[in-house]
Design goal:
Elements (H helix, E strand, L loop, with lengths): L4 H16 L10 H6 L4 H11 L16 H11 L1
Length: about 80
């Protein structure tokens, strides 16, 4: 499942904070690329996100299980 725009913002923001605190880059960037991005942690985090190398996972709440009545009706359909 694709990340929502809110999840993307959270992931990129969290990773940008890590980079600004001195975390190593997860992708190889040339000096020219860094200068084009002006060493901006958010831009570096965006590039890492686009390449899919950020090790941050999203935990989504799952819907509650079906009620007992729904389970019984589902079993009746399969018979």
């Amino acid at each position: 499942m694709a990340d929502t725009k809110y999840e993307q913002a959270r992931i990129i923001g969290s990773r940008a904070l890590q980079i600004s605190m001195g975390a190593p880059f997860l992708i190889k960037l040339k000096e020219q690329d860094l200068e084009e991005m002006r060493y901006n942690p958010v831009e570096i985090a965006k590039r890492e996100y686009e390449e899919g190398v950020i090790p941050i996972a999203i935990k989504r709440p799952m819907p509650k299980s079906m009620s007992r009545k729904d389970e019984e009706s589902e079993q009746g359909k399969t018979r």
